Amino acid sequence: MKNIIIIGAGSTGAVIASRVSEDPNRQVLLIEAGPDYPDIGSTPFDLVNSNNNSYTNHDWGFSYSPTRGRDINFPRGRVVGGSSAVNTTIALRGMPEDYDEWADLGCPEWSFDKVLPAFNRLERDLDFGDKGYHGDAGPITIRRYPYEELEAPQQAFLSTADDLGYPYCEDANEPYSFGAGPHPMNKLGRLRISTAIGYIAPARIRPNLSIKANTTVRRILFNGKKATGVEVENQDGSIEVINANLIVLCAGALMSPKILMHSGIGPAEQLESFGIDLVGDEPGVGQNLCDHPALSVVCEVKKGGIVNHDQPIIQTILRYTAEGSDKRNDLQIEQISFAGSEKGPPLFSIAAVLEYQYGRGELRLRSANPHEPPIIDNHFCEDDRDTSRLVACMKDTLAFTGKGELANMITSISFPDPARGVGDEALANLCRKFSGSGYHPCGTVKMGDKSDKLAVVDQYGRAHRFDNLIVADASIMPFVPRANINLTCIMIGEMIGEWLRTGPTDYGL
Predict the structure, then answer these.
(1) Cβ(491)–Cβ(109) under 8 Å?
(2) All residues at 6 or more sequence positions from 255 whose CB lies less than 8 Å from its CB, including other chains
C-alpha cells in the first residue's frame, strides 16, 4: 500500500509529489492520465515550444459553453506537467487583495502575507530575484523579454500604451504595480519551464516516488466516509484497484469535480439521476466555476513581416482599474502577436480581459461514463457588473487601434465590425454573445468554512465531510485571482505540499 496517491501530475500535483517525496519515509504514487516524458530529449516539440500553446496533441478534447448557444473547444493539458506543459507561460501572481479576500472568506492561511513565501519559494526570477517579494532559487525560472527581443507588434503596443497615457510597469509581479510592460514568463528561449521540468525532473531519482502515466482514474473508493484508494483504467484497458492511506486529488478545476461526482460525491439529485451510488451529498461540487471572460479586437495588418507565426504569441501586458471599480487591476489588455491562419491575411489581435469576475458558471456530468467529458457552462457576462466592465475594456482596447505605432500597422479591423457600431449597447451585445474563456477555470471544489454549504474542503484542502481525502488544485480557489492562474496553482502545490510534508498528522498520516 502507498502512503499517498496523488491524482493528476499538473501544475499542483507535480509540486505536491515533489515536496512530499522529499521525505524518504513516504511512498508516493503520482497518477497521470496523459503520457510522461522523462527527459527533454524525449519531449515533443509542442511541449517544448513556449512561443505558442499546445492545443491538440496533449489535450483532453473538452468543449465548453462560454455564453448561451455556443459550444467551442476548451484546451487543457493531458500530460505530466498538466496545463503548465501546454500553456502560454505567463507567470503572473494576482493581486495581494485576491488572497486577502480568500482569507476573509474563511481561509486565513491564504492571506497574501502567508502565500508570499510560497510564491518566492517556487520561482527563480532572473530580473528581480534580489527583491524581498521575489525568489531567486526556486524550480520555476521566470524572466521578462527586454525591449530588443520584443516582436514588432509588442513594441508598438508598449509605445501606443505610452501615447494613451498608461504608465510603464517593469515588473507586473511587484505587489502594487500597474500599467503596461513586459510579461513575466516561465520560459528560457523557446523552452517552457513546466512543473514537469521544474519539479518532477529532479525528483525522479527518488526511489519513493513512482509515476504511473497513461492511467485514467475512474473513481475514488470509499469505506463509508473514508477514502481508501482509487479505481484506475490502465493503458491496456484493464481495471485496477490501488489502495493508499491518503488520496490527494489534483486533477484540475474540470476533472477534480468530475472525478468526485463519479465517486459518489456531489449534488445528490444529479448523481442519482445517473445511477451513481451516493457517498455524500455535496452541492458545491461543480458549482462556483470562475474564469476570465475575454473578447478580442482582430486587426488585419500591413504585409511585410509584421506578423510571424513562429515567434512568441504574447510578450507584454497592460493591467489597470476600471473607472469607478474598487477592484484594483480588474482589467487587462494584451497584444497577441498573430491570429488566424498562416495561409490567410496577416492578422493580429488585441485582447480585452476581465480579471475580477462576479458571475459564476457550473460543471455537470454528461453521463455515468467516466470517459464522457463534462458539461461546462460559464455563463459569461450574465452579471451586468461583468458586462459593463468588459465593455469599458473593449472601448479602451479599440483605442489602441487608432493611435501611434500600433495604428500605423493596421489596415482594417475585422472584429468587431465598425460598421455595426461600437457604442456601449452594441459592445454589450457582443460581450454577452461572444465572450470567451481566458482558459483559467477554477473554483469548482471551493475551499471555505464548513458553514458555507458550497465549501467542499477546508483551507488545508481537507474534505469537510470525508476522511483521508484532500483536494489541491485550481478547483479549491474561492474565486479566480486577477492573473493567469498557473503560478497560483503552483503556489497551492507549495502550500499544501509543505503542510503535508511537515505536518502529516494533520492529514491523518
Answers:
(1) no
(2) 8, 33, 60, 76
Q: Omega of the bond prior to 416 within 30 degrees of 0, cis?
A: yes
Q: Write out the E strands in 362-422.
A: 362-364, 375-377, 410-415
Give every CB contact of residue 259 below 8 A, 6+ residues apart in sequence. 7, 217, 219, 220, 249, 251, 370
Residue 36 to residue 112: CA distance in whole angstroms: 34
> CA-CA distance, 94 to 27, in Å (whole number)?
34
Residue 500 corresponds to which cell in the numbers above? 503535508
Among 505, 506, 491, which Cα is nearest to 19's?
491
Cα distance between residue 64 and residue 73, in whole Å: 6
Helix and strand numbers, DSSP H then E, in the chain: 13, 25
User: How far is the C-alpha of 271 from the C-alpha of 273, rounded, in Å?
Assistant: 5
For residues 459 and 110, the answer to whether their CB atoms sit within 8 Å is yes
The distance of Cα 141 from the centroid of its chain, to the nearest Å, equals: 18
Domain ranges of the chain: 2-45+195-286+442-507, 52-76+145-188+289-437
Residue 470 · residue 433 · CB < 8 Å: no
Q: Report the chain (509 residues): mean pLDDT per 10 consecutive residues.
A: 90 98 96 97 96 96 95 96 98 98 98 98 98 98 98 98 98 98 97 98 97 98 98 97 98 98 98 98 98 98 94 98 98 97 95 98 97 98 98 98 96 93 94 96 98 97 98 98 98 98 95
Q: What is the helix (H) or strand (E) element at residue 64, kind and residue range?
A: strand 63-64
Return d(Cα 108, Cα 40) in angstroms, integer: 39
Could you tell me the CATH superfamily of domain 2-45+195-286+442-507?
Answer: FAD/NAD(P)-binding domain (3.50.50.60)
Residue partners of 172: CB distance under 8 A and separation at least 6:
92, 181, 182, 183, 184, 317, 319
Instruction: Give the three cell numbers for residue 97.
Output: 487583495
Comparing CA positions, the residue from 331, 336, 335, 348 lying closest to residue 413 is 348
- CA 444 – CA 453 distance, rounded (Å): 13
Task: Sort strands 239-249 and 469-471 into parallel, antiparallel or unpaired.
Answer: parallel
231-276 per-position pLDDT tens digit: 999 999 999 999 999 999 999 999 999 999 999 999 999 999 999 9
CA distances for 406 relative to 339, 427, 459, angstroms: 15, 22, 45
Q: Provide φ and ψ at 332, rounded to 5°.
A: -135, 145
Question: And the C-alpha cell for 421?
Answer: 457600431
Look up the CATH architecture of domain 52-76+145-188+289-437: 2-Layer Sandwich (3.30)
Residues in contact with 122: Cβ distance below 8 Å, sequence separation at least 6, in sequence order: 15, 135, 138, 139, 140, 487, 490, 491, 494
Q: Are strands 187-188 and 191-192 parallel, antiparallel or unpaired?
A: antiparallel
